[in-house]
């Protein structure tokens, strides 16, 4: 093995690790007064890491030359694509955080460092080529996430969210670890390439049980039904910048990891896991849609929306083809834009005293009192619902097209029918804003970073987003091709 080559391939992870350690020292000496400086430097580190992975994505890096440390780490185009989305989401959660935490006098130097280490863990997750690498990345992300959920110590809801996330997350990690041990026991290796080769001759019952347990653990991380029970409570209770982070970066990392595990390690045994993914997809679509109907808290509604969208994304994985993987990645990029825009609006909804307004009936008549905010929220809702001509429609179209081309016409039909249910609760928010009598609750001023993120997100998810179709589709195709050539 060429150590210099391996160290070069993990340069983004090295950058984030060194930056995190240095910023820890800055936080120790500078205290909370240095939190804004640390946030700026953390964003700079994420941008630098993103710049390092971009050439591999644009160049379509794949094959043995992208493998580091005896195949334990893959720095291919697939990993680069997902890392760009992860770093973008993490940076957005950093720039919008100070305005929120300053309201509670709770901005601490540790926040950007935790986000930085979480991003590092997520980068390792999507580059994993071995079960051990997978688990190290997953736990690095999870340990930071547990602290972030409980970051607002003056809020009982935040403490409750952190505790629930920790307990259920530990349970899911145990289930995943048990599945990994079964797979190792029946294949004799932890490397994805070795697992794939060991299972080429057939799948034993023990290895099948291992796959089931691993899927259960990963389903928790992406909040797929029936492992979604933590999502609404954690989304509602966590500080809103943290909720934005949870809804974007870890979602990309967990879905990327699931794609890496199923299509790399168990790619030749697709028949063994396709039915499980089919169930996860349809159940998440239906439960996410039905669960959101009765919600009156906008963050809980976004939690069920997240579950619903994960279901649509998993439709592409169930097909188990390069076209399905490309559709998943394309949808993920659009989903990130929609989520960032949605939570930017939520952070801008404040009353005259600066308190955050999360109760949906309080949005009544927002189109007449704050037309810009109402328009931004309406665009996000229409795009999440997949209503043309918003860009969110194209993401759903691609995964359904992949399902039809893959011979899963029934799955596509059921998913399309269930998406109509989801449109109801998205349109309900629009109806409250545009047709109800004004409640005149939202009066607070918005931070410039919130406005900037909302404007950029709305431009991406608007009909103008279709101009990105060829470029983004080409990147998604390149990433999907690299994934199928990772072994």
From TrEMBL:
Q: Where is the NADH:quinone oxidoreductase/Mrp antiporter transmembrane domain?
A: 128-422
Q: What is its main location?
A: membrane
As for membrane topology, the entry says: Multi-pass membrane protein
Residue stretches spanning the membrane: 15-31, 43-64, 84-101, 113-129, 135-153, 165-187, 207-230, 242-263, 275-294, 301-322, 328-349, 373-394, 406-427, 448-468
Q: Which GO terms describe its molecular function?
A: oxidoreductase activity
Top-level enzyme category: translocase
Q: Where in the cell is it found?
A: Cell membrane; Endomembrane system; Membrane
| The EC number(s) this enzyme carries | 7.1.1.-
Keywords, comma-separated and alphabetical:
Cell membrane, Membrane, NAD, Oxidoreductase, Quinone, Translocase, Transmembrane, Transmembrane helix, Transport, Ubiquinone
Q: Which reaction does it catalyse?
A: a quinone + NADH + 5 H(+)(in) = a quinol + NAD(+) + 4 H(+)(out)
The highest taxon in the source lineage is Bacteria
InterPro entries found in the cross-reference section: NADH-Q_OxRdtase_suN/2, ND/Mrp_TM
What's the subunit arrangement here? Answer: NDH-1 is composed of 14 different subunits. Subunits NuoA, H, J, K, L, M, N constitute the membrane sector of the complex.
NCBIfam families found in the cross-reference section: NDH_I_N, PRK05777.1-3
Q: What is the stated purpose of this protein? A: NDH-1 shuttles electrons from NADH, via FMN and iron-sulfur (Fe-S) centers, to quinones in the respiratory chain. The immediate electron acceptor for the enzyme in this species is believed to be ubiquinone. Couples the redox reaction to proton translocation (for every two electrons transferred, four hydrogen ions are translocated across the cytoplasmic membrane), and thus conserves the redox energy in a proton gradient.
Q: Which family does it belong to?
A: Belongs to the complex I subunit 2 family.
Q: What is this protein called?
A: NADH-quinone oxidoreductase subunit N
The organism of origin for this protein:
Novosphingobium beihaiensis
Q: Which gene encodes it?
A: nuoN
């Amino acid at each position: 093995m060429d150590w210099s080559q391996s160290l070069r391939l993990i340069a983004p992870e090295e950058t984030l690790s060194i930056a995190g350690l240095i910023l820890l020292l800055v936080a120790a000496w500078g205290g909370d007064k240095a939190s804004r400086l640390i946030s700026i430097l953390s964003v700079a580190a994420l941008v630098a890491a993103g710049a390092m992975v971009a050439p591999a994505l644009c160049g379509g890096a794949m094959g043995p030359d992208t493998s580091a440390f005896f195949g334990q780490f893959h720095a291919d185009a697939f990993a680069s694509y997902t890392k760009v989305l992860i770093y973008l989401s993490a940076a957005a959660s950093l720039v919008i955080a100070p305005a929120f935490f300053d309201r509670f006098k709770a901005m601490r130097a540790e926040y950007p460092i935790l986000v930085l280490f979480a991003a590092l863990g997520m980068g390792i997750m999507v580059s994993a080529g071995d079960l051990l690498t997978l688990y190290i990345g997953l736990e690095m992300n999870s340990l930071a996430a547990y602290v972030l959920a409980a970051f607002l110590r003056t809020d009982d809801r935040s403490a409750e969210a952190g505790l629930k996330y920790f307990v259920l997350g530990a349970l899911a990690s145990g289930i995943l670890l048990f599945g990994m041990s079964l797979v190792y026991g029946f294949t004799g290796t932890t490397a994805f390439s070795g697992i794939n080769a060991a299972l080429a001759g057939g799948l034993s019952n023990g290895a099948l049980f291992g796959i089931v347990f691993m899927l259960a653990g990963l389903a928790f991380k992406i909040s797929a039904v029936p492992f979604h029970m933590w999502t609404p409570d954690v989304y509602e209770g966590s500080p809103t910048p943290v909720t934005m982070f949870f809804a974007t970066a870890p979602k990309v990392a967990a879905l990327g990891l699931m794609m890496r595990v199923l299509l790399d390690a168990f790619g030749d045994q697709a028949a063994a896991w396709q039915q499980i993914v089919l169930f996860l997809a349809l159940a998440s679509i239906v439960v996410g849609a039905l669960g959101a109907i009765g919600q009156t808290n906008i963050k809980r509604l976004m939690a069920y929306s997240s579950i619903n969208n994960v279901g649509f994304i998993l439709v592409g994985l169930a097909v188990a083809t390069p076209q399905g993987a490309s559709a998943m990645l394309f949808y993920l990029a659009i989903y990130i834009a929609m989520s960032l825009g949605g939570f930017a609006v939520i952070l801008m909804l404040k009353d005259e005293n600066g308190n955050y307004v999360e109760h949906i009936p309080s949005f009544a008549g927002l189109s007449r009192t704050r037309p810009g905010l109402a328009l931004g929220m309406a665009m996000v809702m229409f795009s999440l619902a997949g209503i043309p001509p918003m860009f969110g429609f194209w993401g759903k179209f691609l995964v359904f097209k992949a399902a039809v081309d893959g011979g899963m016409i029934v799955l596509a039909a059921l998913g399309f029918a269930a998406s109509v249910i989801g449109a109801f609760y998205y349109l309900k928010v629009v109806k409250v804003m545009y047709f109800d009598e004004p409640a005149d609750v939202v009066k607070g001023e918005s931070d410039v970073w919130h406005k900037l993120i909302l404007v950029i997100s709305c431009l991406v998810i608007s009909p103008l987003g279709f101009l990105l179709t060829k470029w983004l589709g080409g990147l998604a195709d390149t990433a999907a091709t690299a994934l199928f050539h990772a072994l």
